[in-house]
Design brief:
By secondary structure, the chain is α/β, with parallel strands linked by helices. It has helices at 30-36, 48-51, 54-65, 82-94, 106-118, 198-217, 223-245, 250-266, 273-285, 289-318, 326-339, 356-365, 378-390; strands at residues 12-14, 19-22, 42-45, 71-73, 99-104, 146-150, 162-167, 172-177, 185-188. A 7-stranded mixed β-sheet has the order 1-2-9-6-5-3-4, with helices on both faces. The longest helix is centred in the last third of the chain and has 30 residues, at 289-318. The protein binds zinc ion. Zinc ion binds at residues 207, 211, 275, 289, 293.
Length: 394
């Protein structure tokens, strides 16, 4: 579908919600950004899969050519753990680094942000879990400067003020939060996402859609977040299929990258039940976060139906669906995820319902549960989970 913007216009330097340098080729400005932030010896945090790719080696070359001394830390699991962060902090101190460049999808970005937080703290990382005013315990001066470079279009973690970290002892994911974990500078270069395989493009793209959708449906008065969320969803509807079918289409890649950043900007308002369930599932089954959200979305919407019918109809209207109702939206969503080859249930990705009680209990405790349009009980989350495993829409 046509959009009003042409590729030549898809550049910008924005200061909202942080300093964002956006456009194809903007990665070339990384050394300028390091100088701007007085970072001379950055620790580059990413995941193992990316570390050996030309994308990272090119960045290292750019930094070395400009006489910076970058070191790579890539001992980061797909769902980063507390010990990954502790190892990164050690590496930061050993190398006498003075800033963090976080590169990647959610794993690299979240790990980089958490390492930057933890290099100047005396307490355990779990003391900064996003509960009450725990964030006030943080020694702000100790947080290292953070430059974020997303390489997928989904998480939006480049503009988030928290990291999701797995607590291996308790087998759950915790949100580690401080307002200054918002990176000082983001370099959004859509060309970095051209090599993403189609299935990752789809899963991360729907994750971005879910961020916008859950933010829009979260309770509370926040017209700014709502406006961003609606436009984020429209861009994803119009451009994710193109990015999925032709990964080299830079117009599609650009719109998807912005839509992902928009999702995380909007979800300062809140997320909801999809994320409340995806977090314990990710921690217990080590499954891909975006894929979990993509599969869970229709099941959670069904469970929330009585509380979101009007809102979803507004979304459907904004997306210019032929049938701008809740049912029209659900039909469109089913077609959309089929086009993107998203499995229809959790059983298809090897998840069984055995632990449903525990998953329900963990979901209700997840911080995202408070953003769901209606408070669901552990038993209700467990039931949604079982239905999502079985593909049961009743
Ligand atoms: Zn997400």
């Amino acid at each position: 579908m046509a959009d009003i913007t042409e590729l030549s216009e898809l550049y910008g330097n924005w200061n909202y919600p942080t300093s964002v340098r956006f456009g194809v080729g903007k990665i070339g400005e990384l050394t300028d950004v390091c100088r701007q932030l007085n970072v001379n010896s950055p620790l580059l945090v990413t995941d193992k899969g990316l570390a050996s790719l030309p994308l990272i080696t090119d960045i290292l070359q750019q930094l070395s050519d400009a006489n910076f001394n970058p070191v790579v830390f890539c001992e980061v699991k797909p769902n980063p753990t507390g010990s990954n962060i502790a190892d990164g902090v050690k590496c930061y101190h050993q190398g006498n680094h003075d800033g963090v460049i976080a590169i990647g999808g959610g794993s690299g970005l979240d790990a980089g942000k958490a390492i930057a937080l933890m290099v100047g703290q005396d307490r355990s990382i779990w003391d900064f879990e996003d509960v009450g005013d725990n964030w006030l315990r943080v020694n702000e001066q100790g947080i290292a400067p953070i430059i974020a470079i997303p390489t997928t279009s989904g998480t939006g973690s480049e503009v988030g003020r928290a990291s999701v970290i797995v607590d291996e002892q308790q087998h759950n994911k915790k949100l580690i939060f401080h307002p200054k974990m918002l990176p000082e500078v983001v370099i959004g270069d859509p060309a970095l996402t051209v090599g993403l395989p189609a299935h990752i493009t789809a899963a991360t793209g729907i994750d971005a859609f879910v961020h916008n959708l859950e933010a829009y449906c979260a309770p509370g008065y926040h017209p700014m977040a709502d406006g961003i969320a609606l436009e984020g969803m429209r861009l994803i509807k119009n451009w994710l299929p193109t990015a999925f079918n032709d990964g080299t289409n830079l117009t599609a890649r650009s719109h998807m990258m912005v839509a992902s950043t928009m999702g995380a900007t909007a979800f300062q308002k809140g997320l909801g039940g999809v994320h409340a369930l995806a977090h314990p599932l990710g921690a217990n089954f080590d499954a891909h976060h975006g894929l979990l959200n993509a599969i869970l979305l229709p099941y959670v919407l069904n469970a929330n139906r009585a509380h979101i019918e009007v809102k979803i109809a507004e979304v459907a209207y904004h997306l210019r669906l032929d049938d701008p109702t809740f049912d029209g939206f659900m039909h469109w969503l089913a077609d959309f995820s089929q086009q993107l080859n998203i499995p229809q249930n959790l059983g298809d990705i090897g998840i069984s319902a055995e632990k449903h009680q525990m998953i329900g209990e963990q979901a209700v405790l997840d911080p995202c549960a408070s953003g769901n349009p209606v408070a669901l009980s552990a038993a209700q989350y467990a039931s949604i989970f079982v239905k999502a495993v079985e593909g049961n829409f009743s």
